[in-house]
Amino acid sequence: MTETRPVPASAEQIAEGLSRAIHEHRLGPGAKLGEDEIGAVYGVSRTVVRAALQALSHQRLVTIRRHRGAFVAQPSIREASEVFEARALLEPRMAQAAAERADTAAIMRLRAHIAAEHTALAAGMNGRSLYLSGKFHIELARIADQRIVAGFVEELIARSSLIIALYWRRQSALCERHAHHALIEAVAAGQGERAAELMHSHLVDLHSALDLREQSYGPVRLREILSRSLEQDGEASS
Predict the structure, then answer these.
(1) 3-state secondary structure of 123
(2) Measured CA angle at 85 (ends 101, 117), to 5 deg
(3) Which of 27, 52, 147, 228 sits CB 3.0–4.6 Å from 15 for a disulfide?
(4) Residue ranges covered by each domain of the chain
């Protein structure tokens, strides 16, 4: 009987795996992303790995330094402030538009997001909770049906996750347990102005929870982190 070999991962799949590890804070800001290690985990060539890293570089999740390689991006203090200021400008109007357009199916998707978020938080999976919290905000942008704004919001949220990993001061840097519930209720009731107010307040609270001082991180076991991610993907699909 011929043994079936696993299909090598694509650049898109590798980028998604690395992105999730970054968003879930298993790979911290400044972590070295060695091409050989990544290629060994996914069973692909350096060419494929480089394509994945270039894609993440375009999303500003990864910084590629000539002759030094790729690293998880490390936002500056100035960038941290600017990202949250930009979110505070964009997302309240987006929340208002979502309240004007949301149907029953959309509300159910939002409720499923925060249920999963709180389950992760209760299990002590703070990085996973933060990742799901970001997906909640992206889903709101999609419901608002503002594609250009949604693209900006998705990039800002990706950078926010790194910023929170680098600068968070307290547990409430994770989306507060009741903040998303209140937003959903306003969206479900079609209360656009209320949704905008809640979103603005929520983002101001997140910004204020950051300790905007320089931080440092130690080395990470990249192969171990990515191998575990593949195991979890396998368990989820079985």
Answers:
(1) coil
(2) 55
(3) 52
(4) 11-74+215-228, 77-208
pLDDT band for position 220 (cuts 50, 70, 90): low
Q: Is the pLDDT of residue 3 over 50?
A: no
- Tell whether the torsion through CA atoms of 207, 208, 211 and 212 is positive or negative: positive
List beta partners, residue 32: 71
Kindly report, residue by residue over 58-91, the tens digit of the pLDDT. 888 899 998 899 999 988 889 888 999 999 999 9
- CATH T-level topology, domain 11-74+215-228: Arc Repressor Mutant, subunit A (1.10.10)
Is 225 within 8 Å of 21 (Cβ atoms)?
yes
Cα three-residue angle 219-221-225, rounded to 5 degrees: 130
Distance CA 92, CA 30 (A): 31
Q: Report the 3 state secondary structure along 141-156.
A: HHHCCCHHHHHHHHHH
- Strands (E) across 54-173 are located at 62-65, 69-72
Provide the CB-side half-sphere exposure for 114 (13 A, CA). 19
Per CATH, domain 77-208 is 3.90.550.10: no
H/E stretch holding 11 reads helix 11-23
Residue closest to 167 by CA, chosen among 24, 29, 60:
29
Q: What percentage of residues in the chain have a pLDDT greater than 90?
A: 42
**Are both 11-74+215-228 and 77-208 of the same fold?**
no
